[in-house]
């Protein structure tokens, strides 16, 4: 009986030792697999002075919109000038859904991209993505729109849309003789810029001390399908009452310019649009509309790509004493520029890429104020 117990004990010890050995082999195998997997991960952007071969930068808009098109040219120019990969990648979401944008960026990270300039779909909804990027040491810049503080975004380089909309309203009210009714066409409710633009328009109207009234706001129409019927409906119902009309977004501007070009009965309405679509510029040249606001889309892409490159290649960081301004809900804002193009300048600017070279060069010339480099 004792011999039987001893025999079973020896067998038990043998099994235990075999199991332990098996676990050690399994652990070693897992360790090797983990190291192989880690080696396949994209380069951690927190590594100082990455070689050019490891730098992959992406400019990511909120979705397909012609406003962002110059970013593609900017990415191509930056890639050639810097000798690194800079890509323009558009999330497939015409309604600018945060979930689609986040999955697009996640897939880019899996492909080795380690620097991002992103138009955020929503002030706060994209922050979890930014936190994931930060945790992996991947720098991200807000571009053309800002996330709200506190945000992992290093900075926001965008049009000061509130100031631009206020100036646009001031130009329009002056052209109207300082009195009358205005309709305001604006963009997607998911766009953080929409509220800022509305604030700017209302501030401009307030300066008239009640002489100019905001007759109607038509929002959430910055898409090729939503804008035309919305503008047509507005003019059919209120066209005779309006003295002026302005748009702070691309597609409503195109729709309004097209409708005013085809319908002379509405041309008593002074209209100022946004951006440089051929339909807008053609209507401006023919004096069917009063003007359009120009932004710096191309310059946004150029500055973002160059600064991300310096962060990744040179080990630069954001200067805590940089001359940022506070705009809306962000305290790290840099204005990418805007100006008014009237009928007198229409031919000069028609057909050109939406760009403000003087502003772009000024911001690049101040790089050492915004970045601290070794």
Number of DSSP E strands = 15
Class per helix and strand makeup: alpha/beta
The general outline is elongated
**Number of separate helices:** 13
Specify the CATH architecture of the largest domain: 3-Layer(aba) Sandwich
CATH topology of the largest domain: Rossmann fold
**Count of all domains:** 2
| Biggest sheet statistics | 7 strands, mixed
| Assembly state (oligomeric) | single chain
Average pLDDT, rounded to a whole number, is 88
Assess the beta-strand content as a share of residues: 15-25%
Distance between the termini: 78 Å
Unreliable stretches: 1-47
Tell me the name of the CATH class of the largest domain. Alpha Beta
Order of helices and strands: HEHEHEHEEHEHEHEHEHEHEEEEHHHE
- CATH-wise, what's the superfamily of the largest domain? Response regulator
Please tell me how large the radius of gyration is: 27 Å
Strand order of the largest sheet: 2-1-3-4-5-13-12
User: Which percent bin holds the helix content?
Assistant: 40-55%
Write the layout of secondary structure elements.
Layout: H1 2-40, E1 56-60, H2 70-82, E2 85-88, H3 98-110, E3 115-118, H4 127-135, E4 140-143, E5 156-158, H5 161-175, E6 180-185, H6 192-206, E7 212-218, H7 227-238, E8 244-247, H8 250-262, E9 270-274, H9 278-285, E10 291-295, H10 297-314, E11 317-318, E12 325-327, E13 330-335, E14 338-342, H11 346-349, H12 357-365, H13 367-370, E15 371-372
Parallel strand pairs: 1-2, 1-3, 3-4, 4-5, 5-13, 6-7, 6-8, 8-9, 9-10
Antiparallel strand pairs: 10-14, 11-15, 12-13
Helix pairs in contact: 2-10, 5-6, 7-8, 8-9, 10-12
